[in-house]
Amino acid sequence: MRFFSPSLFQAFILLIFLTAGCATTTQPGAVGVERKQFLLISAEQANQGAAAFYAKEKDKYAKAGALNKNPQQTARVRAIASRLIEQAGAFRPDTRNWQWEVNVINSKELNAYCAAGGKIAVYSGLIDTLHLTDAEIAAVMGHEIAHALREHTREAMSEALAQQVGLTVLATALKLGQNSASLLGDAATVGLTLPFSREKEREADRIGLELMARAGYDPHAALSVWRKMLSTGSGQPPEILSTHPAPESRLKDIEAHLPEVMPLYESAKRLGQ
Ligand SMILES: [Zn+2]
Q1: Which phi-psi region, left, alpha or beta, contains residue 168 (left: φ > 0; alpha: ψ -120 to 50)?
Q2: In terms of residue numbers, what domain contains 68?
């Protein structure tokens, strides 16, 4: 008689995996983000995927003559980004060694992202169509940078993989089976294309709010920019909202955290940011 059936044994190994994978990627900051994260996939795996994706996107838009087409706009976006990046160390000191990149894509799309490891893209449509102020650009970029600091894509990939492994344990028990390379591929696709959960959005809002305040941008712009996005009357909702769900409850949450970050903004202003 055996104590473990093969499927039970796999489930046991999986449990060890899951327990070992719980950590938090950032320091809590004034906004107090402390949720333990489930990280099965390594940072290297997630960053390599993001870097490859970013290089391909850059190449595509460069060939179309749509990469950093407006030098003034690129300089403006990069200046705001560098002020935010300077403050990222408050959440993760290791970001000082990240290979940050900031590029503007000339496109009507209302979009922006920061891929894992600090690869930022801002679409000109977002700035031009919504007539964003510097502080509003800082709010969007701060939010996107926060997703990268929290490694939300890596976490989403890990969650997707765990679901797949869970299914595989079941599949093995049923004598089906699937190889691990295709599992990782599936997890990557799910992690990169699905909208972030509301919890992850709230974390990105909070950390983004603190980053912009520390960089000397009035955090109230985080409210005005999402309001602008929610009320664009151009028929199609902005692309950024398809991966960053923004219900009214998010705006309330941002409002609730303003008192925590306003002193940081005030002191950054005093220091002449
Ligand atoms: Zn988001």
Answers
A1: alpha
A2: 37-152+194-270
Give residue-wise pLDDT tens across range 239-267.
Answer: 777 777 766 788 999 999 999 999 999 99
| Ligand 1 midpoint to CA 254 (Å) | 13
* Ligand 1 midpoint to CA 268 (Å): 25
pTM beyond 0.85: no
In DSSP notation, 203-222 reads: HHHHHHHHHHHHTT--TTHH
Domain count, the chain: 1
In a domain? residue 15: no
Catalytic residue among 144, 151, 159, 203: 144
Q: Is residue 208 part of a domain?
A: yes
C-alpha 205 – ligand 1 centre gap (Å):
7
Q: Would you place residue 1 in the very low, low, confident or very high pLDDT band (cuts 50, 70, 90)?
A: very low
Contact 111, 140 (CB under 8 A): no
Q: In the chain, helix, strand, coil percent, each to 5?
A: 65, 5, 30
- Mean residue pLDDT of the chain comes to 84
Q: 30 lies in a domain?
A: no
Active site residue 260: no
CA of 187 to the centre of ligand 1 (A): 19
Q: Is 211 within a domain?
A: yes
Which residues line ion ligand 1, judged by CB < 5 Å? Answer: 201, 204, 244
